[in-house]
Design goal:
CATH topology of chain A: Helix Hairpins
Number of helices of chain A: 3
Helix content of chain A: over 70%
CATH superfamily of the largest domain in chain B: NADH-ubiquinone/plastoquinone oxidoreductase chain 6, subunit NuoJ
Largest interface: A-B, 69 and 86 residues
Number of domains of chain B: 2
CATH architecture of chain A: Orthogonal Bundle
Oligomer: heterodimer
Radius of gyration of chain B: 21 Å
Largest sheet of chain B: none
Order of helices and strands of chain B: HHHHHHH
Chain lengths: 100, 166
């Protein structure tokens, strides 16, 4: 059996890498992909703890996280297409029109 | 054997995640993310959740990555390829990340709760049946709400990406 802390350390590593992608990259597409990575690292933790405590709720929460992620990606990519059509940029720093 | 496979999958997933963040071309990032999701679904199998592994492959590798690649195909990424990876002024964010990561690792390794290996769960072959019974009885309302959220996101994505009339 795999010890629980291995899974947690894998989750931590993927979370830190994904957060680095969100904070350090300026390309909107890569920021969105890093968000996917963050949600997946959370899923690893859910499933590892669900197995550890022999409980279904970890897997059920992971299913809901996957469903909400699909919705989020669809809306985010719709916003991205509308943004590129109007402003023709992919950099996060160029999209500051809502800043007062 | 089990642990060796886990280490292999974990290493490959971390390497592909680093490739995702460090690659300059968004297409390379998308392919690295796809490889990373495959490794994570293998890890789900090892953690005793084969249904989640299948869902992971269907939803992430099958649907979300195709969506990403379609959008990459629609927008012009040539300008994005040319930009530098790390513009200046991000040192506070990097320091914060390193601090956060070390804190999480230290807290996990500090407590002896997680060190002992898990109790061997002897469950019959009907784990998926039990899972779906729990999902559709105790968690029916969140399930329906999730389906409504998906429908709303579908309509919202169509409305957002549509050309403005006139």
């Amino acid at each position: 059996m795999v010890p629980l802390w291995w899974s947690i350390l894998l989750g931590v590593a993927l979370f830190v890498i994904g957060a680095g992608g969100v904070l350090l990259r300026r390309n909107i597409l890569i920021v969105l992909m890093s968000l996917e990575l963050l949600l997946n690292s959370v899923n690893i933790n859910f499933i590892a703890f669900g197995q550890y405590y022999d409980d279904f709720r970890g897997q059920i929460f992971a299913i809901f996280v996957i469903a909400i992620t699909a919705a989020e990606v669809a809306v985010a990519l719709g916003i991205l297409v509308a943004l590129v059509r109007n402003k023709s940029t992919l950099k996060v720093d160029d999209v500051t029109i809502m800043k007062g | 054997m089990h642990q060796g496979f886990f280490l292999l999958f974990a290493t490959v997933s971390v390497v592909t995640a680093l490739t995702l963040v460090l690659a300059r071309n968004p297409v390379h990032s998308a392919l690295a993310l796809m490889a990373c999701f495959l490794q994570i679904s293998a890890i789900f199998v090892m953690l005793g959740a084969p249904l989640l592994a299948v869902i992971q492959i269907f939803v992430y590798v099958g649907a979300i990555m195709v969506l990403f690649l379609f959008v990459i195909m629609m927008v012009d990424v040539r300008e994005a390829v040319l930009q530098r990876f790390m513009p200046g002024g991000n040192l506070p964010a990097l320091a914060l990340l390193l601090l956060l990561g070390t804190e999480m690792v230290v807290l996990v390794l500090w407590s002896d709760r997680f060190i002992e290996s898990p109790p061997v769960a002897e469950r019959g072959g009907d784990a998926i049946r039990d899972l779906s019974k729990t999902l559709f009885s105790d968690y029916l309302l969140p399930f329906e709400i999730a389906s409504v959220i998906l429908l709303a996101a579908l309509v919202g994505a169509i409305v957002l990406a549509r050309k403005e009339p006139g």
